[in-house]
Amino acid sequence: MNQYDSQGKRTGGKLPKLRDTYGPRHRGKDRVLPKRPFNYEPYYRICLAVLWIEILAALITSKGMVVRHVDISGNRLIQPPAIERCVDFRTGQNWLFWRPGIREKRLKAFAQVKDATVKHSWVGTITVKIEERKAIGILVAPLITPQGKRYQTYMLASDGVLYNRLTNPVKLPRVELRGPTELFLGMNVFDGISIKRTDIKNPVAVYELLTDKELLKGDPRRKIAALLSKKTRHLFDPVTGNPSSLDARISLVDDLNSIISKGEITAGGISSRVELPPEIRNDIDLRPEGKELADVNRKLLEFLLPSQIVSSRIPGDSLRVAVNTLTQVLPKYRFRVKSVVVDPFGFLCFNMESGVIVKLGDENDMEAKLLMLDKALCSREGNTAIKIDVSAVTDEAVKSGSSGYFTTPRTEPNVPKQEQ
């Protein structure tokens, strides 16, 4: 056996045994320390990583992961090129890292699309199924422009969304808004509390009012500014964003609607140092919930941002009742309605095909009012009337058997007598 000195030279002889200097059991005894085994774990990891890279490269370059066909079904109003741009896939592309959820959100952004499903198969087929909205009525509203007064006509879906502009006349129930209102595609007219894009006059001014550093402590506007999303802050940044863009307006509207619906403005109350109208203060003290809370928050937001948010709102509940009455309730009766008129206060009015005008009032006790209207039209007064008022009819009045309606007789024109 060879022996080595301190400089590494071979001297011959055996290596000295190492003396164990620890532990009471082996103290003073000589033992040979075991040889450390070779560590293969780093090489295993390297081989595994190389294997995964090879598999991934094979999947990327494989012809089985290539889109061979895009199957689109259910579209009638949206053209296939627009759908293909949203899906963002063409024949020959690889779909390995493809996420269908993003494509579905893009398709649902169309006002005409109610639901969309995007799937892929292992044979290279992308399947796009679209469920479009169906019209249950027509919504007509006047709009005041610098050129004068004009009317907007949209197709109305069952969920209250305006999904298509009407250019040709169709035979559908007609709902008319009396007050001037700006409508746009994708607008939900059944939701009269949420802020619409057209309700905000100047988004930049609104953002500056909310982020004003001179606001007093306890001011609700400071709480609203703290709840704005990072996306909104980035878009309204004059250096990195674009405050005048449509994306900035939409992002601000989405944030304000989220704050209104969750009731985070009035959470914990509002300091007494903030001057509020007595009616808003009383509503906040009552601690409303649900829809009433959202209505109070909308009124508070209109007060905190004066002349920036339009206070006139669409009577969504009355519109929902009007559409439901036209499509589901009226077919049970014998009379025919030409159109339903809804004024800014939410009062309903029927324009009958016979020329009779029916005043219904608010949306409460609608079944009782229609029963009384049917009774009135069958009576002698109803046949000779030009106006019928059933706004005061209630369920109790129908059960008690009282009439509860008023008629305005049709006046005959005065014809001068001829001289003999």
Count, helices:
13
Low-confidence stretches: 412-420
- What is the C-alpha radius of gyration, as a whole number of Å? 37 Å
Beta-strand percentage range: 15-25%
Helicity range: 25-40%
The strand count comes to 12
Main sheet properties: 9 strands, mixed
Strand arrangement, major sheet: 6-5-4-7-8-9-10-11-12
First and last CA, distance = 160 Å
Class from secondary-structure proportions:
alpha/beta
Shape: extended
List keywords for this structure.
3-stranded mixed sheet; 12 strands; 420 residues; alpha/beta; single chain
Summarize the structure.
With 420 residues, the protein is α/β, with parallel strands linked by helices. 32% of the residues lie in helices and 18% in strands.
Structural description of this entry:
The protein has 420 residues and is an alpha/beta fold. The chain contains 13 helices and 12 strands. The protein has helices spanning 41-61, 80-87, 100-108, 203-210, 220-226, 230-235, 246-262, 278-285, 291-304, 316-329, 366-378, 380-383, 395-400; strands at residues 69-73, 113-120, 125-132, 135-145, 148-157, 162-165, 174-177, 337-342, 348-352, 357-361, 385-389, 406-409. Strand 8 (337-342) and strand 9 (348-352) form a beta hairpin. Helix 7 crosses helix 9 (291-304). The longest helix is centred in the first third of the chain and has 21 residues, at 41-61.
Set out the fold topology.
Blueprint: H1 41-61, E1 69-73, H2 80-87, H3 100-108, E2 113-120, E3 125-132, E4 135-145, E5 148-157, E6 162-165, E7 174-177, H4 203-210, H5 220-226, H6 230-235, H7 246-262, H8 278-285, H9 291-304, H10 316-329, E8 337-342, E9 348-352, E10 357-361, H11 366-378, H12 380-383, E11 385-389, H13 395-400, E12 406-409
Parallel strand pairs: 1-3, 4-7, 7-8, 10-11
Antiparallel strand pairs: 2-3, 4-5, 5-6, 8-9, 9-10, 11-12
Helix pairs in contact: 7-9
